[in-house]
Amino acid sequence: MLMLNCDSSGLPYYRHSSGSLSYKSSLPTQHRLPGPCTCPDGSRILKDHFPQDQYEELMQRRAKEFQQYKARTNSILSKLLFALPNSPLQYPIQGVIVRPLTATAIPGMSSSIYASVTNVSVFINLMLLGAITSNPSFITIFSVYFCLLDISSQVTIVTKTFLRYKQLRVLLDSIRKFYSNIKVIIADDSLEPESITGENIQHYIMPPAQGWFAGRNLAVSQVTTKYFLWVDDDFLFSEKTKIEKLVEVMEAVPELDMVGGSVQGNKFHFSILYEEGDENEGGCLYRKSGGKFHSLPSYPQCHLASGVVNFFLARTDAMQRVRFDPKLQRVAHSEFFMDGLGSLMVASCGDVTIDHQPKTDGNRNPTYNKFRSPGRNDAEFKLQLHFFKNYLKCIRYG
Fold first, then answer.
1. pLDDT (tens digit, 9 = 90+) per residue, 316-363?
2. How far apart are CA 385 and CA 388, in angstroms?
């Protein structure tokens, strides 16, 4: 059962009988209508980034993959069915699809009745003014992480490095200044690996130049704690880098899968606005920099968002389900959150911060800079991947 409430700021939300929260978004209402979606101004039209002589064959392959995807994922509950009214109300009993954190009109009911939840595709049963999710259930074995209450038993620090051993060693020294026993996992695809040793440090050597997301996958695959903290190899722990505060938020709001902090005051949170298009062209997506949704109850410094900065605490099992696409070697960050849209609940908390090491002549590496700066081919490939893999018609990075 869902009950309508308002938080301390007056924002409406639904409280399930289980205690979980679902907010009604302040974004413009999205109505599901058949037909093409509308590309935001300034969008990249993705089909324009393919050679013309390959386009028709690519469209056919994409359409086939999309139909196979629907065959695997669609449920009998996806069909829209209505309960005929015995009272003045008619209501859908299954098949209503809503977008994450976006108000969606409930078909067959008054235009003033909306659903707003955190899943991309949720099948909603409405019983008069209450609602329950209705998905098929299967018997599963209960599985949770066993851990003690100390921070080292709950969290592993994870990073990826490439040709930046000076910065990496400074990072490790700063970690040990504040967290002497916490485990650190390093994925390293440097061209000529150096030895990194120390208590509770795991250093994994990869084939050279495998890329950003491949390294993340390797590092996260080795985490055995409930949470991991992602940091870049040139970050610097300080008195304000309080992992415990991030854990507190995750424990208090168990629906959360990730909570980001700030890097020297930069939170870099963003929202992802997705409009479903027709089956021929695909959807329209807008990544809005600085975008956020509602604050978390009891944590006004934290807001729900679609994505956060490269300093975040994440629930290990949730991140392993979404996975970082290793095809993206250099131009990659928002793309993980696009893949996780609707299956990950993300928040940003600006009161937990980490520093960034200053760039000096002593730690500059021309070879690193060559790999760090993506070429045109990398950017083009990312747009092509969005077209085929994410079934998008257009995308705007704002």
1. 999 999 989 999 887 788 999 999 998 899 999 999 999 999 988 777
2. 5
CA distance readout (Å), 6 to 22, 102, 270, 297, 299: 11, 17, 24, 10, 15
Tokens for 98?
């809503």
Listed residue (221, 234, 263, 224) closest to 161, CA to CA: 234
Instruction: Identify the CA nearest to 81 among candidates 68, 95, 99, 101.
Output: 95
Q: Give per-residue pLDDT as tens, 57-74.
A: 999 999 999 999 888 887
Confidence of residue 38 (pLDDT cuts 50, 70, 90): very high
- Domain range summary for the chain, segments of one domain joined by +: 150-397
Distances, alpha carbon 219 to alpha carbons 74, 77, 234, 327, 329, in Å: 33, 38, 17, 16, 15
- DSSP-assigned beta bridge partners for residue 303: 295, 348
Cβ atoms of 284 and 39 within 8 Å: the answer is: yes
The answer to whether 258 touches 313, Cβ cutoff 8 Å, is yes
pLDDT of res. 145: 67
- Are 303 and 347 within 8 A, CB to CB? yes
Measured on CA atoms in the order 92, 95, 101, 107, is the torsion positive or negative? negative
CA distance 329 to 204: 18
| Torsion sign over Cα 279, 387, 325, 295 | negative
Per-residue pLDDT at 277 exceeds 80: yes
* Residue 213: predicted pLDDT: 93
Query: Do the strands 270-275 and 283-289 form a parallel or antiparallel pair, or are they unpaired?
Result: antiparallel
Strands 392-397 and 283-289 turn out to be parallel
- Just give the CATH number of 150-397: 3.90.550.10
- Rounded to whole angstroms, the Cα distance separating 249 from 253 reads 6
DSSP structure string for 296-335: ETTEEEEEEESB--S-EEEEHHHHHHH---TT-SSS-SHH
Let me know the angle formed at the C-alpha of 85 by 84 and 90, rounded to the nearest 5 degrees. Answer: 80
Edge-to-edge strand ranges of the sheet holding 270-275 = 44-45, 392-397, 283-289, 270-275
List, for residues 291-325, the tens digit of each pLDDT value.
999 999 999 999 999 999 999 999 999 999 998 99
Given this model, what pLDDT does residue 87 score?
60
**pLDDT, tens digit (0-9, with 9 covering 90-100), for 195-219:** 999 999 999 999 999 998 999 999 9
- Helices and strands of the chain, counted as H and E runs: 9, 23
